[in-house]
Design a protein that fits this description.
5-stranded antiparallel beta sheet; globular; Immunoglobulin-like; mainly beta
Amino acid sequence: MAAGFALGFFACQAQACGPDTRVQFTEGSDDTFLIENNSVIGLSLQQMAIDLSSSAGGVIFDTDYGGAGWSAYQPFQPLASTAVLRAASSGLDGYQQLSLVFDRFARGDSFAFEIDLDDQLQDSDHGQTIVSGTEIAGGAVMGVFTDKHGQTYRATGYFDTDGQAILTQGACS
């Protein structure tokens, strides 16, 4: 029976299967990324890569004083989280890629970090030091997940105009 059709007294709803992870970028005095693993039980996020080279605003990481970005800067700074970070390629100043490797990132866990972003548009929405949702839109997020049997799953999402990327492989019926 197709998802969403009533069967007797019960409605069959499509349910997420495989990877299901949300990445939210929030612009502020401290630019923040929040990653939440909503995948099926037993599926852990092992690695994540954020690639902003395809973003509408040509967004870069601004991590060094006097570097490639504009005025304020903020190096990669993990925040209190339930996931356990093993390693990060700190998002070098002026670069557009950042890679994260986790020791533990199970369903229900989250990981947050601060890092400054700047756009490269001459006529940006709010000046180059403030990255809007429309400027980060199109940036890619790739995730590698493993289950309890060691099987690997991959998912890719793209930031939308609200600064959110969803990594999923679709729905199971």
